[in-house]
Q: What sequence folds into this?
């Protein structure tokens, strides 16, 4: 499957856990905008349930975190802005 096809494939869901004043989150949000991606963004400071979901799923409260759910149900929690941006570039750039 080519990168262009995977960018539009409904089998993968992406959610970004972040908060507004985090400079590393800003870098990831800029990459999302640059690539023209429509990714759900969950602000963990505005919604305590999002913070709890991040801790329960990913194991820590660190942001930014990209939650990746594959079509087969596999879940990945990707931390570190540079790793997230590299992932987005590789799969959707």
A:
């Amino acid at each position: 499957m080519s990168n262009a096809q995977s960018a539009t494939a409904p089998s993968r869901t992406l959610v970004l856990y972040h908060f507004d004043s985090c400079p590393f989150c800003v870098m990831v949000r800029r990459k999302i905008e640059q690539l023209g991606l429509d990714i759900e963004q969950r602000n963990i400071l505005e919604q305590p349930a999002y913070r709890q979901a991040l801790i329960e799923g990913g194991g820590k409260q660190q942001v930014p975190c990209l939650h990746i759910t594959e079509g087969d149900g596999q879940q990945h929690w990707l931390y570190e802005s540079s790793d997230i941006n590299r992932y987005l570039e590789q799969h959707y750039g």
Summary: The helical segments are 3-8, 23-35, 48-58, 81-92.
